[in-house]
Amino acid sequence: MDQGGKKRSVINGTEKDPWIVKVSPQMATPSLQDNRGDVDRLLDGLRKALAGDEVAIDFKMAKRIPSTLREHGYEVQAVLYKGAYSWHLVALFPAAFDTPIYGLAVDLGTSTVVIRVLDLTTGEIKDERSFLNPQVEVGQDILARIHFASKEKGLAKLQRSLAEKLNEDITQLAQRNNIRTVSFVGMSVSGNTVMTHLFLGLDPFWLCREPYIPAINRPELIKANELGVAVNPESPVMVMPNVGSYFGGDLISGILASRMTHQAEISILVDVGTNAEVVLGNREWLMGCAGAAGPALEGGVAQMGMMAGPGVIDKVTIDPATGEFRMRTIENRPPVGICGSGLIDLVAQLFLAGMIDLRGKYVESRCGKRLKEVDGVNHFVLVFPQDSATGSDLTLSQPDIDALIRSKAAMYTILTTITRMINVSLRDIRNFYIAGTFGSYIDPKSAITLGMLPDLALETYKPLGNTSLAGATETLLSATAREEIYKIRDRVTYIELNVNQEFMNLFSAAKFIPHTDRSLFPSVKEWSRI
Amino acid sequence: MDQGGKKRSVINGTEKDPWIVKVSPQMATPSLQDNRGDVDRLLDGLRKALAGDEVAIDFKMAKRIPSTLREHGYEVQAVLYKGAYSWHLVALFPAAFDTPIYGLAVDLGTSTVVIRVLDLTTGEIKDERSFLNPQVEVGQDILARIHFASKEKGLAKLQRSLAEKLNEDITQLAQRNNIRTVSFVGMSVSGNTVMTHLFLGLDPFWLCREPYIPAINRPELIKANELGVAVNPESPVMVMPNVGSYFGGDLISGILASRMTHQAEISILVDVGTNAEVVLGNREWLMGCAGAAGPALEGGVAQMGMMAGPGVIDKVTIDPATGEFRMRTIENRPPVGICGSGLIDLVAQLFLAGMIDLRGKYVESRCGKRLKEVDGVNHFVLVFPQDSATGSDLTLSQPDIDALIRSKAAMYTILTTITRMINVSLRDIRNFYIAGTFGSYIDPKSAITLGMLPDLALETYKPLGNTSLAGATETLLSATAREEIYKIRDRVTYIELNVNQEFMNLFSAAKFIPHTDRSLFPSVKEWSRI
């Protein structure tokens, strides 16, 4: 599942401001008049090449420097990264080769891991590759992995399985791009708090136990050799900091990529997965919360639900006049199932066509022959057996819709709650950023129709794609972005969502399509009329 | 050969200014209201305890912190050292124990290694121990060791033999002082350039080959675990920087200990060993040179010469009236030989008694029965067989004296040359510091009598003992001293002593007792009269 540069647009055209650089230090060869030590000589050359900045060399590297310098006649290129206080030497290459340098930006998802290869000199995306997080073998969800980590050698196994798969893919990326792995000289990793703990080999035990304490929220740069990643062993690895157990580096990365902290107007960033993670703010303030929205939104619950892939239905329309169904499948293959965005489309269209009522219940008179009863439960047939790739029909049951309605109600309640807590109206939101691959495909009109998203002007909704990866990419390429990541982390006020009586009242009111208070969704009234 | 605190006087009473400290960070226990990560919580506590200074924690340590904090209920004491830009965590101990912290100051001599145990909180010297550098097995002198290092695995063998012996002695020091080795949390090492290269495992190959390039002159702080030293693995090891191949960290250490860089008046520091290392300067300028003075000065050449030890003659006087010899031996044991300072005394006394002439040749008429000829060579019998511990007589041959005169002439020539090069008269020197164990025992009057040292007021001569160890001690205890070490290193102008015609002329003139130009030594004329 390679996506080679598809999402390039989210990388903003910031000024070049790299923190991993290659320089050519000028060194006089040793003489009686200039008998500085080899390492001291190199350091002097590096400082000069870096406009007087200080440079540190790890002792293990320093030991090899005299022979390297002498082997190449004191003509070398040096790769360095900027640490908190000084530059640090990563590698020396013979000047004759002019070795290009590359970095890897990694989105460490609970399900999917994406590796992106960047040319650190030009900032160009060279390649990209994604794979299923091998840790899903011990558990699909985060709690299962925390549980596994507490078993004998469990943590080490989880860390190793990920590192091995990462290294396998890094090696393949290197081969197909003709890159030597020592030329990978930097890495940035963005993931939620549990994923980064497991990547770093930190015990996640306390993350899911009150009061939910991470081992580390703000890791410093770590050498690749301490993590067993198959890049240049001295490479810095930047792991995005977390705000807490439930607000991870992937979101910090997303906030960076959205640029919401640069704007005077209020923006909201929503990352919809198993959790609905919501960030609200502008250049002055930043609030975040995370709440269970339910996997229905990811297409993980409906019987025919599945992740995006060939043959998966991602768009549904029903002709309001004829009741005719039009479906789009990925790569135009015969349908095999439906993904989250397709599901939202489908249910919204069913509602607009009057086939479900405002409680989300099937209206038998409108559904006609597409409705069938299995074991006393209504199933709506979206694709008949003869049209499906599986040979069976693809159906949406009443419980599938009920689950989706609970999820959308949770989402809307979270949005209402967080904005109320800080006295902002949903109408004040100028940019509504939707993060995540799933989010990119949601049709805002369908989501508004269901009352999952508020009834804002459609142009307010801006899908950003994989913002975790976009933020990791920017962070690896720019020192300013790297500093901003820490500033963002320190600025986020995390709000604990209390599921109290008020929340439950709001939730109940949101369990209708679009809402019990239809005045909140004037557009839906209009769309229903057509 | 333990010297338990004998040399304590050279540690000047500087203000307490430690760079290795133990603090008790105050941490609130985790709660829903305060859910900072464990490492972040500790860092906040440490910053507060260090008046807001920044703190860095190595990733390997960070991984163990959550379990350590929880084990001790967040009540810990932390040991930290001040790096170039921030403090670094070395160890966490349970607060309940209030573990004392210790450091080791090491003088890494070519022949003798001295380890001193310091209480890092009080600055007190707890113990001291010295041993023969095990590398003497492959070669007494530095060149032999450089040669050995270039053999297959030679460098690793040299490094290991030293580390093993060091660790053996560190363990013994720990045991006899009831100290756990993890409580040794810092180390400073002072040695010449070859010794520090071998300690660090740096190839010394180029040190003795033109243009004499060290691998590193200015090592940064190194973790003990990178050097295989049996102290707390995270301890910082401060290795004194070198000026060049022939001007090592032991001298920088000595300059620090002498305080010559704090004074307006001109001082000279002389460390006499195989090389005569000379530093001249004040708080404004600093010049250094090193030249071969000959091992005779160390008691290494005369047939009966030996290093200081029980039964070794270290003081000789001849009654000018009776010609009677009075000798002092170490521990008052029957004589076994003579050490360097004793030899200088003896030859000076022989001269004042008229038993040798101004060329250093025996005057038969004055020596009487004490002179005997063996194989055509004059030998002066200092101790007759019946009085010696060996059963044989102890004698000083004419060639022994000739060697001593060459050595003393070299020393005087170096002193004359370096002062002339910078237009300073020897008479302008207000403090003449003599470094080294050997130097401590030299009687300046005898050295002046021979014309080895210039004819300055006797109170000008100040023996400082082991300044390499004293400087290492100060450096380990004080951040200011540590900074000063680098400043001194950067300030020293190393002068290459060219053995040209002028030097040879001066040398020839100095090969008389005290000198061909007797007006340079008015005191000797006076002393001869008595």
Give an account of the 3D structure.
The structure is a homodimer. With about 525 residues, the first copy, chain A, is of the alpha/beta class. Chain A has helices at about 40-50, 60-70, 140-150, 155-175, 195-200, 250-260, 340-350, 365, 400-420, 435-440, 445-450, 465-475, 480-490, 500-510, 520-530; strands at about 20-25, 55, 75-80, 85-95, 100-110, 110-120, 125-130, 185-190, 220-225, 235-240, 265-270, 275-280, 285-290, 310-320, 325-330, 335-340, 370-375, 375-385, 395, 430-435, 460-465, 495. The first copy, chain A, contains 15 helices and 22 strands. In chain A, β3 (about 75-80) and β4 (about 85-95) form a beta hairpin. In chain A, α3 crosses α4, α7 packs across α11 (about 445-450) and α12 packs across α13 (about 480-490). The model of chain A is unreliable at about 1-15 (pLDDT under 50). At the A-B interface, α1, α2 and β9 of A face α1, α2 and β9 of B.
